[in-house]
Write a structure and sequence with these properties.
3-stranded antiparallel β-sheet; alpha/beta; about 425 residues; about 15% strand; 14 strands
């Protein structure tokens, strides 16, 4: 028997349970005829959402022009629309020639870190994070330094804690705002403090703003608003990531972008590195790029979904209500994005393990959730769900989750009694 192919060792450090072991088990159960509710991925099209018609029409109108390779940075019209949005938001020196379009933000995260890191360079990443950020850091031979965003602080980072983790090898500070997986939306004052930290230590700011317009209106003065980071960064080099997947419900288009702002002279070499890597992959998917100007210049179709009476707003409220009425769950209310990150009270269920519970919920309640440890946290008492289902389905899901938590508590009590 011939030896197995040896794979890259660093892959053993990568977590991506969003599409990992539990998702594979879910496919097996579906093949057996089980009907599952899959809350593991923020995939609007899987829950009945459609990309707005004016985006679809823009692609249809230009499909005949989409056969050739495009420019490695993206279609000029699309890049100009992105740059115009960034300038309108206050990004200094944003321009079309400093915008790169990719096959989703995922490709651009990898590309931007590859252009930056030498072996052993460090990147400051939130914990919890969207795990692609950690994976891309590791697979580009960097060191992922996670700074804690604690539930007790609304999952907001502590600038002093971040600054204490900076070393001579630290190259970049990554922010995800609005946040995946927690739904936290960072206030302006906090962002200003984080910019000051980056400026003191000459760090590249990298901000994932793919959920930029998904902010929930509670109808109260406590509602958070989204603050773009580049406007606060000024001349400090800043990469702003965005795309069509979430705000415009067009995941399958695979259209993302990154805009480089800040001092031109200081970022020139890095810009050339991004251009080289963009050229090596030839270009991004061309048809989807025609939808970018339509998306950024056309009707706002996401805000009504996030306001009272909107479907996403109602789904979020269903999660809030379910956790409030639960015996076992607590929740830091999500102010933005498409997720909630409930925690289980370990003073009541001391032996709780998020992965074991996620498998139990899948096998016995036909619901697929993502265990919290998948998001590079040290604790194991959280899980993530998407807010995309209809509110009535979310209520049903949390009833099933509560039943499984009740069953877990009964088993724990029984074991203690036997012992």
């Amino acid at each position: 028997m011939s030896p197995s192919i040896v794979t890259r060792q660093r892959l053993s450090e990568v977590r991506y349970e969003i599409r990992g072991e539990l998702a594979r088990r879910a496919r097996e159960l579906e093949a057996q005829g089980r009907q599952l509710i899959k809350l593991n991925i923020g995939n609007p099209g899987a829950f009945g959402f459609r990309a707005p018609e004016h985006l679809q029409q823009a692609i249809a109108d230009n499909i005949g022009r989409s056969d050739p390779y495009g420019h490695q940075q993206g279609l000029p019209e699309a890049r100009e629309a992105i740059a115009a949005q960034q300038r309108a938001r206050g990004a200094r020196n944003a321009s079309a020639d400093r915008v790169f379009i990719g096959n989703g933000v995922s490709e651009l995260i990898d590309m931007s870190l590859r252009a930056l890191l030498n072996p052993g360079d460090e990147v400051l990443l939130p914990s919890p994070d969207y795990p692609l950020w950690t994976a891309a850091t590791l697979l580009n031979d960097g060191v992922a330094e996670h700074y804690p965003c604690e539930a007790a602080n609304g999952f907001l980072p502590d600038p002093a804690q971040i600054e204490s983790q900076i070393t001579q090898r630290t190259r970049a500070l990554v922010l995800i705002n609005p946040n995946n997986p927690t739904g936290a939306v960072y206030p302006r004052e906090l962002l200003e403090q984080l910019v000051a930290v980056a400026a003191r230590h000459r760090l590249l700011l990298m901000v994932d703003e793919i959920y930029d317009s998904i902010v929930y209106d509670d109808g109260t003065n406590q509602s958070r608003s989204f603050q773009p980071l580049a406007a606060l960064a000024g001349d400090l080099p800043c990469l702003t990531f965005g795309g069509l997947s979430k705000v415009h419900r067009a995941c399958g288009y695979r259209v993302g972008w990154v805009s480089l702002s800040g001092d031109v002279a200081r970022t020139r070499e890095y810009h050339h590195a991004l251009d080289l890597l963009g050229a090596l992959r030839l270009c991004a998917n061309v048809p989807g790029q025609w939808a970018i100007p339509a998306a950024l210049e056309g009707e706002d179709t996401i805000t009504p979904l996030c306001q009272p009476g909107g479907r996403l707003h109602a789904a979020r409220q269903a999660v809030i209500d379910a956790c409030a009425s639960s015996r076992w769950l607590n929740l830091s209310k999500p102010d933005g994005a498409l997720y909630a990150f409930p925690g289980v009270d370990k003073t009541l269920l001391s032996g709780f393990d998020d992965h074991t519970f996620a498998l139990d919920v899948l096998e016995n309640a036909d619901v697929l959730i993502v265990p919290g440890n998948s998001f590079n946290v040290s604790y194991r008492n959280h899980f993530r769900v998407t807010l995309l289902p209809e509110p009535v389905q979310i209520t049903d899901v949390f009833q099933r989750i509560e039943q499984r938590l009740d069953a877990l508590a009964e088993r724990s009590a029984s074991h203690r009694h036997v012992a």
